[in-house]
Known about the structure:
By secondary structure, the chain is of the alpha/beta class. The chain contains 15 helices and 29 strands.
Amino acid sequence: xxxxxQLVDIPNRAIYTxxxxxxDGKIYNLKKSEPDTSLPYLMPGFIDAHVHVESSMLVPSEFxxxxxxxxxxxxxxxxxxxxxxxxxKGVDYMINNGKQVPFKFYFGAPSCVPATPFETAxxxxxxxxxxxxxxxxxxxxxxxxxxxxxxxNRDELVMEKIRISQKYGKPIDGHAPxxxxxxxxxxxxxxxxxxxxxxxxxxxxxxxxxxxxxxxREGSAAKNFEALIDLIDDYxxxxxxxxxxxxxxxxxxxxxxxxxxxxxxxxxxxFKVLQAACLNPITHYSMNVGQLRIGDPADFILVNxxxxxxxxxxxIDGQKVAESGKTLIHPIKNDIINNFHTxxxxxxxxxxxxxxxxxxxxxxxxxxxxxxxxKGEILIKDGFAESNPEEDILKITVVNRYxxxxxxxxxxxxxxxxxxxxxxxxxxxxxxxxxxxxxNESICKAVNLIIAAKGGVAAVTKGQEEILxxxxxxxxxxxxxxxxxxxxxxxxxxxKEMGSTLNSPFMTLSFMALLVIPDLKLSxxxxxxxxxxxxxEVFLESPMPGAG
Length: 548
């Protein structure tokens, strides 16, 4: 096979007309030819430098079918979502499912499963499992070390996982939101070499100076591109692009190609942008992904221009996998695994005895994972604490999905719902059932829709109940990715019709139990302070007279 185009030579900062010959999936020859500006641009494919495939609500094979349309040829994938649900069985599922399609999934070994001891998870990855995983050629790195207190304080189990990774010569991904100064130095010196959690340029600059690579994240909920993109001017060899978490409706529209286009539109140097988007992950993770060199795997894309990066064709190992907006990867039959054992709930399960009207409130921020603690007032009816929709202070609950247990209940601001409730079993990291609503009846209906389906996202409002089932681990669908994207778009629109002003209400909801991101979150065991790593009381005042 021969492909001709205007070749984008990123390392040499040059563009010239050339033809490449592909034999047995590798580039056999590369020959310059007479200039022809009518030809499409020929360039390396895009790489997502940090993503949880599970957050697309698609199994890997379906994720690949959508991603290749946007010129993505590989991902650096942390399977800790399914590992938190199904343990090692979940990691094996992701690897085996991904192998069945022509796409390059570079999976890591989940480092923090369970993520914390302050929540109930369905699986565990211990040091013996880390040794097992690291010895496998399918595992390429130690996935994000979220236990930054344990890393900084040299916790023995944390350090053993790091030592195992270093023994096998595999890099260690970081997760250090807000860490600066001496804490950041201690964290980096332990071994983590990347971070995708920076939300200010100052924080990222401090980590760059310590030698960390920075993955600029722009996902469905967390959006740090605008804050960090200027770093590419002076540190092009240290920057990568990632989505971290991308819902199916967004993945159907764009992927890393959008970040490249936005960076170029902001006047950033083309070759620096493409170095970050296409090459730096290959170098850092020693990926067997082509860079348009003789002898490389024939992984490349054809694009119509170097501004919008509209993809004409995507090739992986010489096989055309996408053409002009259409995927050429055929669907496969996907198996189902799960771990879902709680029973249906009653509205009174979500009652909370009031100890006064003033409460700690989780403040959800659009486009951010951090959730400051604020103070607010709830309504009290018959001695019970209830949502205060006028002030947009709504009840939030996390329900243990692995066994029957009383739901945890607290309060949250900025979801904006005026009616009903929304619920999801995509609840990072342990993926218990999480719901926000204006009353106990709606919350209970939304939660029970999830329980009955053994996983999904649901919305309940007057006379309407909608659910997108997610039977694989309670967090992924085995169905066609485009159908899942359409179904998700419908239920997302319903949540917004119910009053939510969030850009991605279900993605934001999924992070409200993520204890490792400060400040205030809710686990199935209670309200949790992510700065001090300890539980908090919901109420700010002493118990009301007669309250018990």
